[in-house]
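From the pipeline queue, job 12 of 40. The input is one protein chain; the requested action is below.

Action: predict structure.
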Amino acid sequence: MKKLICFILLFSLNAQAQCDWSLGITPGPNHTFIYSDECHQAVGQLIQANKDLTSAIQLKDLALQTSDQRIAMWEKTSGDEQDRLNKIESEQKHNDWLYFGLGVLTVVGAGFMTAKLIGR
């Protein structure tokens, strides 16, 4: 659809001033057409413009594809980082309980050692 619109715009802007399309193109033998010099140049310009537009559309599609790849890579990286943060948080909870247990064990051990030193 975009190519058709671009072709119509190019046709209406560039070619009308140079070529009379109703008189400049005549049917030829074997389902061919004969162009006047002005129309032949106008058709050449339209074909070249179409090639340029096609390459521009391909470059746009390539840019969108690259952008989509970057988005997918960012989503994967952010997911990996979220998993890493969840693992660190889980490990931190485990470490908190371990430190609490070691603290209780230290207090109980200090109590026993104090009792032994006092002689009870």
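Job complete. The CA atoms of residues 51 and 57 lie 10 Å apart.
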